[in-house]
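Many groups now describe folds with learned vocabularies. In that spirit, our science desk offers one protein's residues alongside their backbone shape tokens.
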Amino acid sequence: MHYTGYERLSFDYPMPRVLRVTFDRPERYNALDAVGHKEITYVWREIDDDRDIDCVIVTGRGKAFSAGGDFEMIEKMRGDFTTLAQTWKEARDLVYNVINCNKPTISAINGPAVGAGLVVALLCDISIAARSVRITDGHTRLGVAAGDHAAIIWPLLCGMAKAKYYLLTCDQLSGEEAERIGLVSLCVDDDELEMKSIEVARKLAEGAPSAIRWTKYALNNWLRQAGPIYDASTALEMMGFTGPESGEGLAALKEKRAPKFPPGSPV
């Protein structure tokens, strides 16, 4: 039996040899607590070893893809070094596990995708966004550097100028704008998202499996050679969780207001 014992992810097979992984905590907009963060990090190793599938779709239950780390998890990271170090390790492993998974992957982005959710949404080989989706990387609004995945892939997808604009300002992109600038592969009407993801999965699952996997492996060397850039960004993100800016950013999120960061910086 594959994929047993998961609490925050569910699994089904929409067609033969296609696995669908679903963030399954809809009452919290699929926000990831410590359990969910660990599961989405390491499920890729099980997928990599699964000889019964040739393609993977990732989506979210309900109105969200995944709303990222929940407030409790962030608060614990700020106050506990062991939690912070463990989260850094999982954040690092998540990016490399998605990149190194040998199966072609598709994200069906049905709603908000934040934090680890956005990592998976944009690192999948083919990303399909619903038209109503709004995409944002909110790290700097939280008061930490844009780590997770942004430095390793946004410049490759949409160019440095657009990457810097959206990562520094935290402005939102519509699904259509994300497709226009190359941040996602496709944008479709909301009611077509599931059908389109299965249609693309069928093409991949019925294609030449070795040729597709080896093409993916070669292309992902662009990401592997950017590994040092990613490692620096995620280390700086974790450093930010120890400082005052993330405290104000978290408070602002919880109070649903704009953050008031102090001017100037010690560095």
About this structure: The first strand starts at residue 9 and ends at 15. The mean pLDDT is 95. The chain is about 50% helix and 15% strand. The two ends are 52 Å apart (CA to CA).
